[in-house]
Recover the amino acids of this structure.
């Protein structure tokens, strides 16, 4: 689920916790760049167990790359692969103005359009 300023991300727990329970998940997200350069990621943390997190504070109509890292007392997993690439929704706007077309019954060349 997503809004113009947030994304709700669902994910599966790792297939193995390495023998030590997962304590938290770190969701790393960054604005996607057109030249595939590395952007500095932001982090959002959720305590385990978790299978969904809402990432707030995003910009509307913006492309983001998102990965998830599992963390236990030993350390951090590699990021989820491949990264999710998602665009937040646009801000809702009022509709564009309608056009009124008055057609002449006698001659199609005489139609008048009002905007």
């Amino acid at each position: 689920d997503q809004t113009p300023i947030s994304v709700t991300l669902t994910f599966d727990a790792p297939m193995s916790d390495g023998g030590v329970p997962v304590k938290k998940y770190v969701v790393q997200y960054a604005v996607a760049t057109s030249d595939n350069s590395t952007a500095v990621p932001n982090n959002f943390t959720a305590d385990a167990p978790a299978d969904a997190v809402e990432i707030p504070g995003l910009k509307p109509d913006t492309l983001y790359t998102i990965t998830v890292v599992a963390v236990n007392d030993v350390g951090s997993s590699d990021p989820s692969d491949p990264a999710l690439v998602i665009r937040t929704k646009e801000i809702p706007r009022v509709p564009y103005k309608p056009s009124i077309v008055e057609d002449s019954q006698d001659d199609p060349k005489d139609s008048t359009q009002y905007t």
